[in-house]
Amino acid sequence: MTEHLFHLKANWPGNRNDIGEIRAENLQTRISIPKEMEGPGEGTNPDEMLLGAAATCYIITLAAMMERSKILKERLDMDSTAIVDVTNGIFTYKKIIHRPTIVLTYEKDKVMAEKIVVKAEQNCMISKALRGNVEIELKPTILTINE
């Protein structure tokens, strides 16, 4: 068994509406509560960080699975949205919607790409960690270079 360790240091100098910071090997940013939740909205926040983790894990997994399947692409982009429900003052991270756009080099790869779009979400480490707590929806657009 191999384990990989990731470390993060966090500093929060005050109360709810203060601004803190986080630092990891390749990440350094200020953090605060988002304006939508009546915070200062400086730097990033847990909601964006979770969305970023889910989106980056998914798109990297998707690209790797396409490469292993020898599917050539001209472009792979994605928009992702998080939906946070607020009911009776309780915040619940409800849903993430990934909208990958894949422009394939060859039409023959379209059916396989459609399958891989789903398999990548099922195999992404962050998707697995969220499963059962946060719904993840896929809305892919798969085109070929001539479309």
Give your account of this protein's structure.
By secondary structure, the chain is α/β, with parallel strands linked by helices. The chain folds into 2 domains: 1-44, N-terminal domain of TfIIb, CATH 2.20.25; 46-144, K homology (KH) domain (GMP Synthetase, Chain A, domain 3), CATH 3.30.300. It has 3 helices and 7 strands; from the N terminus they run βββαββααββ. It has helices spanning 46-68, 110-123, 125-130, and strands at residues 8-11, 20-24, 27-31, 73-87, 90-104, 135-138, 141-144. The strands form 2 sheets. Strands 4, 5, 6 and 7 form a 4-stranded mixed beta sheet that branches. The protein has a 3-stranded antiparallel beta sheet with strand order 1-2-3, with no helix packed on it. α1 packs across α2 (110-123). The mean pLDDT is 95.
CATH class annotation of the largest domain: Alpha Beta
The domain tally reads: 2
Multimeric status of the protein: single chain
Structural category is alpha/beta
- Percent of residues in helices comes to 25-40%
**CA distance, first residue to last residue:** 45 Å
The proportion of residues in beta strands is 35-45%
Nearest-angstrom radius of gyration? 18 Å
Overall 3D shape: elongated
Q: What series of H and E elements makes up the topology?
A: EEEHEEHHEE
> Count of DSSP E strands?
7
The residue ranges in which pLDDT falls below 50 over 5 or more consecutive positions are none
Describe, in short, the structure shown.
With 147 residues, this protein is α/β, with parallel strands linked by helices. It is built from 3 helices and 7 strands.
